[in-house]
Amino acid sequence: MEKKPFWSGPRKPMNSGPRPQAGRNKIRGNQKKDKDELAINDQIRAREVRLVGDNVEEGIYPIAKALKIADDLELDLIEIAPMAQPPVCRVMDYQKYQYQQRKRLKEQKAKSTKVVVKEIRFGPQTDAHDYDFKLKHAIGFLKEGAKVNVFFKGRSILFKEQGEVLLLRFANDLEEYGKLDQMPVLEGKRMTIMLSPKKVKDAPKKDKVKAEKPAEPKSEEEAPKE
Predict the structure, then answer these.
(1) What pLDDT digit, counting tens, does each position of 100-145 carry?
(2) What's the rounded Cα separation, in Å, for the pair 53 and 28?
(3) Is there a contact between 72 and 60 (Cβ–Cβ < 8 Å)?
(4) Residues 34/76, Cβ–Cβ less than 8 Å
(5) What is the pLDDT of residues 163-221, one digit of tens each?
(6) Cα 177-180-183 angle, rounded to 5 deg
(7) 3-class DSSP assignment, residue 186
């Protein structure tokens, strides 16, 4: 069996890459950032930027000077308005900035209300049991804050009057829980109404019954002196 020749050339030293620099961990320019993320520190490509932030003198600086100001404060340089001329950069901690943005989005999401629309369908052969079953479901939807789209579908125009009567009766039975947004509308062979949930009104405050004060006795008129 032949032996392989022993390699006696120079060996590659271990850990020959660049040593990490001491200081804060910053994202360097050769690292990729997500599409929605802002450029920070060495990722910023502008030659000069408008600097804003706490404990900094706002103004236009060369990028090298802006990076040095942020580094001296042990903070990050964040490009918050890349389309401005020149781009606007804020000096602050990047993790704190991300936390503030997530908190703001969460508050905006909480304020925005999603409109949920539920559908209930009636046909020409709807009986009393089916009607009560759908009415119960509609009450539940309205209590949850959802809108209810009720439609009646018939095969012939002869069912138009029947559908209109049924839908108006259905809206009347839900008067306590929802309000009618529109009267029955016929579109082709389909007639629809839309119901919105009623806002819960504050219970009327009970009027305090004021105790009636006893009538003060009238002072007797003095008899005329003789």
Answers:
(1) 888 888 887 776 667 788 888 888 888 888 999 999 999 998 888 8
(2) 21
(3) no
(4) no
(5) 888 888 999 998 899 888 888 888 777 888 898 888 755 334 444 444 445 555 555 44
(6) 155
(7) strand
For the chain, the 3-state helix, strand and coil shares in percent, each to the nearest 5, are 30, 25, 50
| Pairwise CA distance, residues 182 & 72, whole Å | 65
DSSP-assigned states of every residue in 119-167: EEEE-TT--HHHHHHHHHHHHHHHHTT-EEEEEEE-SSGGGHHHHHHHH
What is the SS3 assignment for 35? coil
SS3 call for 85: coil
User: How far is the C-alpha of 97 from the C-alpha of 80, rounded, in Å?
Assistant: 10
User: Does residue 79 contact residue 88 with C-beta atoms inside 8 Å?
Assistant: yes
Distance CA 219, CA 226 (A): 21
| 52: helix, strand or coil | strand
Contact 36, 74 (CB under 8 A): no
The span from the CA of 133 to the CA of 126, in Å, is 11
Helix 160-173 to helix 128-143 angle (10° resolution) is 50
- Distance between CA atoms of 72 and 128, rounded to whole angstroms? 79
Count of C-beta atoms within a 10 Å radius of residue 24: 13
Q: Are 70 and 91 in contact (CB under 8 A)?
A: yes
59 phi, psi to nearest 5 deg? 160, -175
Element at 50 (helix H, strand E): strand 48-53
Q: What is the phi/psi pair of residue 42, to 5°?
A: -75, -5
pTM of the model: 0.41
The structure tokens listed for 145 are 């804050």
